[in-house]
Amino acid sequence: MPEMDGLETLAAIRKTYPMMPVIMYSTLTQRGAAATLEALALGANDYVTKPSNVGGASQAIAAIRETLSPKVKMFCSRISGFQPVPLALSSPLLSQTRPAKQLPRCDDRLDIVAIGVSTGGPNALAELVPAFPADFPVPIVIVQHMPPIFTKLLADRLSAKAHLRVEEGSPGSIVQAGVAWVAPGDFHMVLEKDGAVTRVGTHQGPPENSCRPAVDVLFRSVVKVYGSGTLGVVMTGMGQDGLRGSEYIREVGGQVLAQDEATSVVWGMPGYVVQAGLANRVLPLDQLGAEIVRRGTLSRSMDALLTA
Fold this sequence. Notes:
Layout: H1 6-16, E1 23-26, H2 30-42, E2 46-49, H3 57-80, H4 92-97, E3 112-117, H5 121-128, E4 140-144, H6 150-161, E5 165-168, E6 179-182, E7 188-194, E8 197-203, H7 215-226, E9 230-234, H8 243-251, E10 255-259, H9 269-275, E11 281-283, H10 285-307
Parallel strand pairs: 1-2, 3-4, 3-9, 4-6, 5-6, 9-10, 10-11
Antiparallel strand pairs: 7-8
C-alpha cells in the first residue's frame, strides 16, 4: 500500500503464504461490509470492525484489544498446535443452567432448520445454502455473528447463489418453506406463533455469549414453536454460542447436526456441541447440505404416507 489496496494485498499474500492467517479490518459502512465479504471469499480467515463513536483514543484501543486479541490468540494457537480444553458435559457452567436429563429419543419429523455459525460462516454458508432446492419443504433460519449492514449484504449474496430466497429477517415476516432468513446485525431474531402462522420477531435484549444476534436465543424460540420438529445445525465459529440452544433442541426430541473439525475454520461452537454429546451426527461441510435435504425430504415423504 498505497500501490495495492487491501483486497489486492490479500490476494498477493495468499499466493505466497496460502496458510497464513489473515484478519481484515473493516468499517461499519456499506462499502466496508461489501469489501469484507469479498475479502472473506478471497481467503481472509476473519475480520474485525474499526471502532467508531467509542469516546476517545483510549476507548478505541480498548475496543481493538477486546475484539482483535482473542482472534489473534485463537489463530496462533492453531498454528502452534495448542487446542483449548473443550467444555466438558460435567462443567459447572452447564449444570448451573440446565439440570442433567435423559435425552428423549428424536423422531424423523422435520418442520424447520435453524443454523448457527460465526467465524468462517460466510464462506461456509455460501457452500451450504446452494445445496437446498427451491422446493425445500421447510423454512430455514440463520444466525451469523455479524454487525448491521453486513447481514443484509450477506443475505443478498447468498440469495444470488441460492435456489431458494434468502432475506434478512424483518419483524412480522411469515415463516414459510422456500425462504431462509438471516438474523439482522445487532438484533436477536426469534420466531413467534401468531394464530395459524409463525412470524419473525426481533429485539435488542442483552447479548448472550457476548453476541447479538445469538444462536441460543434463536434456538430457544424455535423450540417453543416447533418442538421436536426442530433440526439445529451448528457450524464453524469461536466460542460456545449454540451449546445451550442445542440442549433445548435435544431435550424436546429434536435433532442436532454439527460441522466437523477438519472443515471448520474454528471448531469452537460445533466442538462444544460435539463434546457435550448433543450432536446426532458430525459431518464435513460438503456433506451437511445433502444430509439436511435428505432429512427434509424423508420427513415430507412420511407425512404423505400418513395422510394417503
